Amino acid sequence: MNVTCPPPYSRMSRDNRSVRLSVYVKECCPLCDDALHVIEEVRRQTPFDVDVVDITTDRELFERYRDLIPVVAYKGEDLFYGKVSAHRLRQLMRAAAKGADPNATLTPRYKAFLNRLRILLRERNS
Question: Facing residues of 50 across strands?
């Protein structure tokens, strides 16, 4: 049985807002589809730009993110792995709309959680 998946969006723009997230995905990834849906839902309330990057087009990105996708990042810092929380994303984007750096609003506890999650996912898949 052949499964054909549409290619992911390459850019979802909202009037050149100053906040631009990168979302790392690959085709035929249900979690990626869910993440893009959540992101679009949040963007309806708080506009921001999104670059959607297919990790299969870049070997370095594939090696870095293959076990973690979807990954949402801002200025090179990862904000989400796998499931994207609409609530947390909304908080981050509201802070950004007020001029705060979304990365600076992440608590040390959440950053530690992301680091543990990244390690666990890589160990599980190696």
Answer: 12, 21
Instruction: Specify the pTM.
Output: 0.82
* 55-84 residue pLDDT tens: 999 999 999 999 899 999 998 899 999 999
- CA nearest to 51, candidates 81, 79, 25, 83: 25
- What does the CA dihedral 60, 33, 27, 2 come to, rounded to 10 degrees? 160
Question: Pairing between strand 71-74 and 20-25?
Answer: antiparallel
**Residue 3: φ, ψ to 5°:** -115, 125
Q: For residue 25, how many other CB atoms are within 10 A of its CB?
A: 23
